[in-house]
Amino acid sequence: MSNLFQTIAEYDAAKAKRVPADVLQTMAATTRQLETMGITDRSLKTGDRAPDFLLPNHLGRPRRLTELLADSVVVLSFYRGGWCPYCNMELHALQQSLPEIR
Known about the structure:
Structural class: mainly alpha
Strand content: 5-15%
Strand order of the largest sheet: 1-2
Distance between the termini: 14 Å
């Protein structure tokens, strides 16, 4: 997944050339506002233990995190949709990393 950061940096550099400056400024201001609100302080960090939760799997069957962890590692990705380029880059990087994850 290390090349994900490079892919994102390249995407952001290209975005800076095609997106109007006022739009980029609005996006940056919104990001700063979220940081000021402390949202990153309340987020899990690398190495933190996630709280147990219950979510439906791809078949709609409820699964608890602790059940999944008993069987194997868990990779949790918050995929917002095909419209999100960052989500798509992450999904591609996860797919490329699948041999390492398994």
